[in-house]
Structure formats: C-alpha cells, structure tokens
Amino acid sequence: MSMSKKYWRGLPELHNSTEFQAQSKNEFAEPLPIDEFLNSNEAETSGTSRRDFLKVMGFSTAAVALAACETPVTRSIPYVVKPEEVTPGVANFYATTFYDGHDYAAILVKTREGRPIKIEGNDFEGISFNHGNARVQASVLGLYDGARLRAPKVKGQDATWKTADETVTKALAAGGNVRILTSTIISPSTKAVIADFTAKYPNTKVVTYDAISYNALTKANQNVFGKAVVSSYDFSQAKVIVGIACDFLGNWIAGEEFSKQYAKNRKVSKTNPEMSQHFHFESNMSLTGANADYRYMVKPSELGKVTAALYNAVASATGNTSVSVNTKIENEEAEKAIKKVAQKLLAQKGQSLVVSGLNDESVQTLINGINKMLDNYGKTVDVENHLNFKQSDDKAFADLVSEMAAGQVSVLLTYNTNPVYTAPASLKFAEAYKKVKTKVSFAQVLDETAALADVVVPDHHYLESWNDANPKRGLYTLQQPTINPIFAQPRNEGTRQFQDSLLKWADVKSDYLTYLQNQWNTKVLPLQTTTTDFPTFWAQSLHDGAVVVNETAAASTAPASIDYNIAASKATSIKGGGLELFVYEKVGLGNGNYSNNPWLQELPDPISKVTWDNYITMSPIDVKKLGLREMLRQDIDGSIVDLTVNGITIQVPVYPQPGQAPGSVGLALGYGRTAETLKVANGVGVNAFQFLGLINDTIQPIATNVSIAGTKQKHRFAATQIQHTIMGREEFLLREVSLKEFKENDKTYWNPPVELTVHGGGKKHVDEIDLWAAHPRPGHKWGMSIDMNLCFGCGACVVACTAENNVAVVGKEEVSKTRDMHWLRIDRYYSSDVTKEYQETTSGLLDTRQMYLDMENPSANPQVTFQPMMCQHCNHAPCENVCPVMATSHSSEGLNMMTYNRCIGTRYCANNCPFKVRRFNWFNYNGNEKFADINPAQQELGRMVLNPDVVVRSRGVIEKCSMCVQRIQAGKLDAKKSGQPLKDGAIKTACQSACPTDAIIFGDLNDSESVITKERNDDRSYFLLEDIGVKPTISYKVKVRNQDEQIIFHNKSAHKTEAHEEKHS
Amino acid sequence: MHAESEIRIPLILGNKTYRQITDDIIAPIEGKAARGWYTLITICSLCFLWGICSLAYTIGVGIGAWGSNNGVDWAWDITNFVWWIGIGHAGTLISAVLLLFRQKWRMAINRSAEAMTIFAVLCAAIFVLLHTGRPWLDYMLFPLPNQFGSLWPNFNSPLLWDVFAVSTYATVSIVFWYIGLIPDFGMIRDRVIKPWQKKFYGLLSFGWGGSARHWSRFEEVSLVLAGLSTPLVFSVHSIVSFDFATSIVPGWHTTIFPPYFVSGAVFSGFAMVLTLMLVVRKIYKLEAYITVKHVEYMNIVIIVTGSIVGVAYLTELFVAWYSGVEWEQYAFLNRATGPLAWSYWCMMACNVFSPQLFWFKKLRTNITYTFVISIVINIGMWFERFVIIVPTLCRTYLPSTWNTYTPSFIDIGIFVGTIGMFGTLFLLFSRYFPVIAQAEMKTILKVSGEAQKKAAVHAHH
Fold first, then answer.
1. Count of Cβ atoms closer than 10 Å to residue A1015 Cβ
2. Where are the alpha helices (DSSP H) in B62-109?
3. Quick one: what percent of chain A has pLDDT higher than 90?
4. How confident is residue A993, by pLDDT bands cut at 50, 70 and 90?
5. Domain ranges across chain A
6. A142, A197, A632, A782: least CB-packed within 10 angstroms?
7. Cα atoms in the 13 Å half-sphere on the side-chain side of B341
8. Does A535 score more than 60 pLDDT?
C-alpha cells in the first residue's frame, strides 16, 4: 500500500525521460562556465594589479581592525554544561538567613541566572522573624558593593592569603593576649568554631560588643530572673501597650517582627471593633511614637522618672510597695497621663505590655517589675523562650579598651563590628586600638577599623556564606550561599569566610561547611523527631531554611527579692541639662552597617522625609527660641549650628521636628562615615556614635551636657516631602476616626459616600455620574487595598520596590530638587491645631488665608498618619488621554501601563496626575557621570543586582508603578502551565510581600472570593479624590485611632446634617 | 480708491511723493547700516549664542539641566512657548483682521508685525520641539505612516491639537507674509545695482512685473489668505489654552481659558509690535510713516485687550470662590497669596494696572512712555503664563506633593537665547527686507498723506 502512491517533483521526473536521467546526474542544470573563466585573459588585462589588490586588502583589514577597536565586545557565553536547576528566564529561590549582628531575618533569596537579585520573606510554617526590614531588603545590593575588598591586606597592601595567614598565625603563636571583639553571635556553629580556636590559643577571650547596646535588658533580666538574656515579646497578645522611648516598630530588637504582632491587634472592622491601645512616652519622634494612640513628649533625663512613676502607679494598685523617688517631670500632661495609663494597664492584667528602649539597667529592672506586677510574664513577655540577640557586654568592652590602652592585648580580631567608628568618644577606642600589636579585621570593606588594622582578612558576604543561626530558643535557621564567592576569580585573591579563617588558624582540618554539617548532625538533629537520617534532615532543613524544635529551658534562678528602690533611685538620678541629646537609629541606616548602600541613603526617613542626611531634630519651639531658621515649609534652607556634647563640637544642621520634646534634641546614628573607599557614605552627615555615653556601665544614647550655638551657615535638606499637613483635605484624602466614633456610628458617619449635587437638584454618588460607559474587564481585574491602620511607615516596601523595579538612585542634589524616582512613597501627614471647623468663625478672604497659613504648621505634638502612595491605576486615568503619542494606556486587566519605547517625554501626564506619582528621567541616570558613584546600574558589579524582568529606563521617559506587572505575568504563566485557575494570593507585588503587617493587599477583583474583594467591600474602604472622578484602582482603609476623643476626621457633611436636624427639632 | 475726510489725521506725514516713499523704505537696504544696528545685532547674536549653548547642553545631558522637577514638570519651557506664541498673534491680527476691517493704519506696521509673528513662532517652536525628554523622537507627534503596527498619535491629546494648530499657523503666516513681500521685492530688484543683489531680489520677487493682472491676483490672494488667517487668530491660542483647560489640575481646569488666552495674546502681541516699531522708527527714521497716531491706535487696542485680560483675572477668582470647590479655591488663593505670590502681583501690576494709564491721551501719545509700558506688558504677560503654570503645579491635590521651583542657569540661557534669536532675525529682516509694505503705503498716499490732505483742504477753500 505504501508503494501505491508516487510523488514527483515535475513532469520530467514523472516521465523519467533519458534526457532527464542524464541531467539529474549533474548538480547544475546548465553547464558552468568554468573553463571559460579560467581560460580568459581578463585577469591579466584588468586594471587591478596584484599590488592594488594587496593595497586594498591591507587597507580594508586595517579599517576593519580599527573599526573593531571602537566597538566594545560584550561576551555572552552560554553554559557548556547547563546547571540542572538554572533555566535562563526562570527565577530560583533559596532559603537562607540574614544576620549581621544587628538585624536578623529568615529569608528567601530570588536568584536569576545565578545572581541573587531580591530578598523575600521565608514563609515556612512556625517561623518568626521572616520579614526583613528596609536594610534586609537592601542587603542584596551590598553583595555587589564595589567597595568590597577583593583580597586580604597586610599593612595596608594587598596580599595573598598565604601571607595573611602566616602573619596572623605568627602573631597568634607568639603568645600574649588574644581578644575577639565581635557583635552578638547567634550561630551555635560559629560559637563552636570560636571554642576550637580558643582551645588552640588559650589566651583568647571573646568580648561581645554591639554598636547599639541592649546590655541593660540582659542585665535587668539577670537581676530579676537570673538569666542574662533578652526576653521575647508578643505584642499580639497585648491589649494595652506602653512604650517608653522604645522604637519597637522600628529598630528595637526586631522591629518588623514586632510590627507583625502589633498589627494583629490593630486590624479593626465593624465585626471586630476592638484594637489594642498604645501609649508612648519619648523625646524624639520615633516611628513607634508616630503610630501610638497617645504620645507624650518627655525629656531624655526624665524618662527614668516616667518609668518610676508608672511603677508606683501600678504598685499601689496591686498592693506592692512603691518606690520613694521624686517623679516630678516638666511635661505636666505626661505626668498626669501616667495615672490613666496605669489604670488602663491594670484593666488588662496579663494582656498588657510595658517596654522601654532605654539602655539603663535600673530602668529595665523597673520595667521588669512593672510587667511582673501586671502578670505579663509568660503571656506578652517571655524570659524562658528568650531571644538570643543583643548579648552586648558594655562593661567588658570598656575593660577591653583599657586593657588595649595598657598594651596588654597582642592580637585583636574584630568581626562584624567597627568600633573605631561606633565606640563612644569617651572610651578613646582608636587610640587604644593603635596600641594593639597585631590588629586583624574581618571586615568586608575597608571600614574605619579595617583601615587601621594590620591585617584585613575579608569575610564573605552573607549571600556567599554557610552558617546557621539560633535567634530564639527552639528556632534554628540555616544560611547557604546563593552565589559563588564573587571575588574568588583567578585574578583576585578573593574573600574567605570568617569561620574558615578561624578554623585554618586553629589548625582544624575541615572546611566550615563540613564543620557546620557535623554540628547539625550532633546538635540539632537530636532535637527534632521527624527524621533520624542526617542527609534527609540536612536536605530538608536547607530547603526550608529553618527547623523548629522543642528545647527545654534552663531553669531560672530568680533571686528571692529585689529592692526596686535602688533601681528607682538610680533610674531617676540622671541630671537633666538645659538641652539634652537623645541619639537614635534611623529606620533606613540603623547602626550604619549599610551606610554605603545607596538604596538606604535614598530611603526617606519615615518621619522627617529627609534623605542622605542626619541632622539635629529640634522642637520648632526651641528653634524659634534659638533664633534659627524655622524652615517650616522645609523648602527653605535650614541653619547649621555648632553642637557641643561633652566637650566635643561639631557642625550639624538643624531640622525643626514637630513632636520633639522641647529642651531635647535628637541626632541619628549611622552617618558621618570617614572610610575613603565608601564612596556613597563618605561625607554624608556627621557621626553621632561619638556622643554615646557610658552611664551606669552601659552605653546609653543620652547626653545631658549639650549646648548649641547658631552659625550663619545654611544647609539644604533633600526631603521628599516639604508640606507636612493635610490642609483640611481629610475628607478627600486621609480619612480618620476615633475608635469610639467608629463603634458608635455607622459607615455613613465616618466614611461617607462622595456625592455631588446634580442639575435639577438632589445628589448623586460620583460613580453614577460618568461620561463614558465602563470598559469591560472580562478576565482579571487587578485591585489593591491599603490599610492605613496597618501601615506604620517602616519603608521596607519602598526598598523592595526599588530592588524589584530597578528604580534609579539619584542622589542628594536631585532629591533636593524633588526629582526622587521612587515608584512607591509613603506620605506622612502631621495633624495641625487648625482645622476647617475654624472657618466657621472666620469671615473674609484674609481670615481664610490666615487659616490656610496656620494649617501649614503641624501641632507641637502632632498625630501622624502614613499613607503609602503609588500609581493609583485610575480607570479614568487623566494621564492617558493627554499623552500625544499614546505612550501610556490602560490594559484590559485594569492596569495603567507605560510604553517606554513610545514615550517622548512631554511630561504632560505627570502634570495631569492628581497623585503626582509619575517620575521623569531627567538625566540618563544609567550613564551620566554625575551618578556614577551612587547609581548601582552604572557599576560593572552593581548592575548585577538589576532585575532582568524590568526594563532599565533611559533618559527622557516617564516611569511609574506598574503594579509589578512582571510578577503578574509570571503568576499567570505559572497558573497556565499548571492548568489551574490562578489562585488568589499566588501573585504578590513587591511592596505587598515586603510588608510585615499585610497592610497592602493585591488581587483579582473579578474573583468574588478573593481577599481583595472582601477588603474592597469593607466599611472602612474608600478611594482617594473620589470627587474628581478618576476612579482609582487602589482603595484605602480609614485609619482608626484608639482614642476616646471626639471627631478626628472632620466630617463636614455629617456636621451639616446634625445642624440641619437640630434646626428641625 | 475711496475718499477720506480731510480732517482725519493723516497717516503719512510730510510732503511725500511715491518716489520719496520708495527712497525712504529702501534706504536701509541700499545704504549703510546705522551704528545702533550693529550694536543691537551684536548684543542679540551674543544672547542667541548663549541660547544655542544652553540648548546644546540640554540636548546633551537631558532636561534635568533645567529647574523643572517631578511635580512642576513644566515651567519656563512652556511659559516661554505660550509667551512667544501669544506675541505672534498681533501680526496675524493686524494683517488679517484689520485688513478685513479695512483699517488703513495697519499698512505701516503689518509687514514688521508679520515678520515678528514668524520669528516669534520660530522661538515658540524651539520650546515645543525641545521641551520633550527625547526630542529626536518628536516625529512621533505627527500622524506619519509607520511600521509600528500602524500606530497613530493620540487624537484626544490637546498637545497633539497644539502640534497641528501651531504648524498650520506657522505655514499660513509665512505664506501670507511672503505674498505681501513680492511687490516690494520687485521694487527693490529694480532699484539695486549690484549684480548679486539683483539676482537675489530677482529670485525673491518671483518675477513680479507690476502688471494689472499681477496686482489683481496679488490682492485676491491677500484677501483669501486674510480670510484663512482670521480663524487662526482665535484657534491657535484657544488650542494652546486647551493644554491647560482640558486637564484636571485645579487652576488649569477652567472654561474661561480660550477667550482669556486669545485676548492676552493680542495684548502681548501689540505690546511687542510697539516695542519693535518704536525702535525701527527711530533707527530708520521712519517717523513720517509710523506716526504718533499709529502708536495711539495700537495703545487703544492695548487698553481694550488689557481690560479684557483684567476682567478675566477677576472672573477666575470669582468663579473659584463661587464654585465652592476646595481645590479650585485653594489654587487661586495660593496664586495670589502663596509662596510665589510675588509673580502673581507682578502680573497684576504689569497687565492690569499699567495699561489703564493709557486712558490719558497725553500718555498714550507719548512715545517714551509707550515704549516703557510696552516692555512692562511683555514682562507682565510672561508672568501671566508663569503664574498659570508654576505656582499652580507647585500645589495641586495632595499636600504631600507640594513643592517649589527654581529656574536653572540653563533655563535663563534658553529664554534669553530665544530673545536673542528673535532680535537677530528681526534686525536682519529690517536690514535686507522692506520693513514697511511700501506698495500698500503708496495706495493710501493720495487719501491719507499729509501734503495731499492739506492740498485737498486748500482746494475746498
């Protein structure tokens, strides 16, 4: 049958004539004129001689060679053997651990083609600390920091590892005291390595020193419970929370974890109208204070008195003995409030929590006493299941410094710490350091300490390292490399892990990975019951990134009785000065570990909104008193003053900060780096670490011997927000309500629909007034909801967005010109004493003008609201219809999209955007020399962090939030591949996944079961600027403050109805 | 030729004959230029050079070189654009509308006014083309056939309407101006002696023969073009105003903008014509043709349009208050009393108060005073556009986005550069082209010449 058909290519083939047969043997149908060509004499007779031919050849070869010189050759080498798990274009995620001695997070690292590019939270069940703060989010950029050392250094010169090892082992073998100065180590295996090292060199002593010390917590727990540990806290169980200068939503111990817990009690709805109540006493306006329901301004020296007063108020009500100290403080309002706060605490015994951020042993002892009296132990605060962070021993550190100064230390190893920069000036660390015979630093960059060290043995970045961590009793996490050590190239000597160095010097013949596996085999494996097979256990743990085990706690050895009187008298003993300084950590830079990270430098401070700077925060009242530039609008330059603290004078600008306790000033840590190789950080701000004081044997952020003298110099601040109040626009933008009103009234009172008067009388909801029929959204219809009750302003989302979307860093000068490029910003509004109600008593234009001028001034102690702001993806987008070239348009899934290729940059869309979220590329940030040092995209190494799924924008185009359209597409593709409908929650935008409190919800509005649909239908849901009819896709949820006072959100229409009804009756 | 009352003030002073008119108007072309001309053109071209450098720098690094920012995305660029487009309006109004209304006094000024229009539109074009982030892609603004899957511009965008309005306007203005020049070029061709000049003007004159047929066609075309230009006087600035009026920015979103912009444009255009004509009159000694009466007529137009503009400013304020809209009210309060209020009051003083002094005959017939006021009005009209754009954008809906604006050195350079370019072009024009439409002038000599009027009066007696 197969032979029954015949295929042919032409009639000659079909007929198969002899002629065809003959022809088919030839390759070419017609004979080729080869002979003719070879026999012709044309070659000889032609004008082109051999010489000419060579000339032409020579010229063209040279020309081609020259032309080739100009074009850079970009090598793109495919894998010879493709790693099994790497598929170009598909991201891999690895579970690992972030820990730098200051912050901890259990994370997933997104890698693309072998490059780590993004940090996500690890959602392993039962895990905590799985949301990184802004620093953790930004840490991936640190991997590609050009300042990182590529080889060891001996006496300031690049050296081989052999030389470095020899130098160090020689010094170690010489005998004499060896000291390891390190920040808190939470890795059991690292501790074991150090033990091995100590065994080899018995003169070794480890001194734990954290730049920002929590020594008072451990000391107080030692006093009260006999355990020198940091308690774990559970804010989610606390109905009443009192913070005393404790930034627990920001930097205190584990801010993101506490935010997550705290948020659980802040999520109110009509069905669950209960929320925690938070009182806060502090000097500086902290992130936590800004989120408190009631905030009181207290001078730093009086914070101990507040603690003692609270202790007394609770003690007298619970039948305990009071302490007899003077608790009189300047701020009478705060003093009065203490009684009320105590009552609230007592009403929620066992469900309350008092925390203090003061690093004063006596204050913390009192705090422990208060929590004990309130039965909070084992409920909201737990000393048994303690945390392993913050083991700093300040006394030991001070002793070490004097030992060094006396020349008694022959080898000093500094790991994960930079004491030359961070030690208090009074300790004179740098001088003492110079007296150490052999100084060895493990710093990854040539920081202030490493610059003075004799030997620098650069450590791997954490994304290149193996390690483990035990942050909390019962939780073990692993750290695994997500990339080969970047500098381990033939050309470089490269970096080496700290533990490997120690093992080598201790003559332990094992690499750290094997060592780590052995440790886990012997120590962690027995703690769990799932498996007894180590390879299985190891593979599973590595995959999960964490193991949760049951560990029995060591029994506490509490002393029989504690005399709180001694603590109280010590706590209240700090003498107040005319002006007091409270040094604080910024949410962005923290302790300055990452001050060379441009993403963090450009992250606006959540309170002041200033980038690339630290400054004195001063109460506007004091600013006026001192005759400094008031700069209330902040678009005017500020004053520079001479700040003298304990005899040291520096020049620093003054920023008028509402909410700063009068008589006190604040100054942020982490700035004023002097290390030359830190190109980003060098010269930004001043170093505040020098003003830390060793008071009562702990390093405290308080100084009372402070004076300020004005100078004539001016300073330009680079702030992303220069108008601080809402200007009477609450109804359209920023709806707030007190819990009391929220409970007592229904939605129409505190979240009224926006109605407009229509022709012919009557009112209509804005949605009913429309020129066009809505476009169909047949497939997905994306939506987002932002809960202002849950946004605390931490900024992790801003950095996450920067990393995900390759947002350019533009630097201080450009930010000061309002040219920041952030796709997502967090607007921060202060309340003002003047509201629109005032208008009812005014008449005439001048009064109105005065009212608006007064509204611009925030209250002395304002209430703060945070409002994340990004492209609202308006369904009637005003940007879309004005673009002359249709570079911005709407997708069928409801997204407002940018076509960069088409954009010619008329900026009309940006003008017409009511939310002002569109960002213009004023320069070529990726090529312009001006941004070479700060923009990672311009650096050979730095650009490895770029997300290949997102275009790097060129000069002259507009960009803005795309709602992470690349993630949406990836999510849809995954669903398509699996053949399942897209699951709600499968797609998370970068900001959403970075948010520890789930303030941002994203999903499909066409899915009636989705979380976003439920959020959208919530009573608290509203849209911004609904009255102008742009129909945003992003909805916000009304902020509820747990206050008893009347009306926070000024509801004009409700007022009028009431007045109307009164008239009728 | 129609008769005119003898008691009407003559439009051509002195005892002028046709020959003298020719001599007077060709004098700058045939003779040597005055020292003032050289001084002015040096200054202007230096400014122009500064502008070119500033523009080159901008094209090199991006418009980050300017003071604009995220929020105030338009600033001096669009201010200058609207200002120059506005200035251009007087030329078209004089040559088209006044032609249709048979206002003979326009003949002394229409040539220069049209030239001014063209140069002003060129200046405006610089801003419209180079204010974009990627000017090399400006061609995307035009509905050109393309391979992007046939992707057209967005016909909903007022900016696109702008492109059409301005390009039409520029084309019609140039054609109208050139047609008017043809008879005069013919006259110059016949006068000049040097061969290259003869060739040059011969080419420009399109073989003008001065025959009756030529004249008849010339007048027909002029009339048709006048008819075409007249709607443009109103459309161009209306459309420019749509850039603002159709947006949702509080302070821009107002229906009053089209008439307000058109009258403002005529207002500023006349001021600029006055500035130029008073200089031309002095340098080229054309006092006999551009008389005090001409100046007075123009000043009257300025009072009228200036008052319309003043009323528009007040109407805006009233409507903002009357609307009861928070955004609108605050936008205008901010303009008048906010951080940039000085620019608002500068605008008010220059545009509303200063022209009102022209109600006094003594002042409106005073050449020096008129010259000063004409410059004051130009400054005021620049501030009008600045006030509309910058303080408004500084404070829109979200208080968190409120910011400020400071121009950069480059901004100033480009603006001064366009003034330099305008001046240079105008000075070259005045040196090589007839600044007064002599052919038209000659048509009214018999009825509006001083000597002829006197003779007529004498004859009556």
1. 22
2. 76-92, 98-100
3. 64
4. very high
5. 149-213+392-458+499-505, 227-387, 577-719
6. A632
7. 8
8. yes
Instruction: Kindly give the residue spans of alpha helices, DSSP state H, lying in B93-194.
Output: 98-100, 110-130, 158-191
Q: Give the helix/strand (H/E) hosting A25.
A: helix A18-25
In this prediction, residue A399 has a pLDDT band, given cuts at 50, 70 and 90, of very high
Residue range A227-387 in CATH 1.20.120.1200: no
List, edge to edge, every strand of the sheet that includes A294-297: A294-297, A277-282, A240-244, A352-356
Can you spell out the DSSP letters for A169-221?
HHHHHT-SEEEEEESPP--HHHHHHHHHHHHHSTTEEEEE--SS--HHHHHHH
In angstroms, rounded to a whole number, what is the distance separating the alpha carbons of residues A104 and A107? 9
Q: Which of B132, B138, B45, B88 is nearest to B418 (CA)?
A: B45
Contact between chains at A923 and B64 (C-beta distance less than 8 A): yes
The residue of chain A nearest to residue B66, with distances taken between CA atoms, is A922
Which one, of A88, A67, A92, lies nearest residue A77 by Cα? A88
pLDDT at A1065 over 50: no
**Neighbouring C-beta atoms of residue A172, cutoff 10 Å:** 22
- Helix ranges (H only) for B246-403 are 257-283, 292-323, 326-337, 341-348, 361-364, 367-394
Stated pTM of the model: 0.89
Q: Which of residues 810-849 of A touch B (CB under 8 A)?
A: 814, 817-820, 825, 827-829, 845, 848-849
Q: What is the mean pLDDT of residues A531-557?
A: 85
Residues ≥6 apart with Cβ < 8 Å to B260: B241, B308, B309, B312, B316
Is it the case that residue A1052 has pLDDT exceeding 90?
Answer: no
- Taking contacts as CB-CB distances below 8 angstroms, the residues of chain B near A814 are 64
A293-325 pLDDT tens trace: 999 999 999 999 999 999 999 999 988 888 888
Chain B CB within 8 Å of residue A270 CB: no
Phi-psi region of A678 (alpha: psi -120 to 50; beta: other; left: phi over 0): beta
pLDDT of residue B99: 80
- For the segment A700-755, what is each residue's pLDDT rounded down to a tens digit? 999 988 999 999 999 999 999 989 999 889 889 999 999 998 998 888 888 999 98
pLDDT in tens, A159-213: 999 999 999 999 999 888 999 999 999 999 999 999 999 999 999 999 999 999 9
Please state which architecture CATH assigns to domain A149-213+392-458+499-505: 3-Layer(aba) Sandwich (3.40)
- B154 closest CA partner among A917, A899, A372, A819: A899
Q: Can you give the pLDDT at residue A689?
A: 93
- The whole-angstrom separation of Cα A312 and Cα A908 is 63
DSSP annotation of A524 reads I
User: How is residue A75 annotated by DSSP?
Assistant: P
Q: Which of B139, B396, B398, B404 to mutate to test the interface with A (most CBs of A within 10 A)?
A: B398
Extract the tokens encoding A205. 């002593």
For residues A280 and A661, give the distance between their C-alpha atoms in angstroms, rounded to a whole number.
Answer: 13
The overall average pLDDT reported for chain A is: 88
Query: In this complex, which of B74, B156, B246 lies closest to A907 when CB atoms are compared?
Result: B74
**Do A227-387 and A577-719 fold alike per CATH?**
no
Please state, in angstroms and as integers, the Cα–Cα distance from residue A205 to each residue in A176, A201, A405, B164, following that order. 11, 9, 17, 81
Alpha helix (H) residue ranges in A495-602: 498-505, 512-519, 534-544, 564-571, 598-602
Which portions of chain B are predicted below pLDDT 50?
Answer: 1
- The number of beta carbons lying within 10 Å of the beta carbon of residue A813 is 12
d(CA A388, CA A748) in angstroms, rounded, equals 49
A577-719, what's its fold? Answer: Barwin-like endoglucanases (2.40.40)
Angle at A807 between CA A802 and CA A812, to 5 degrees: 95
pLDDT of res. A72: 59
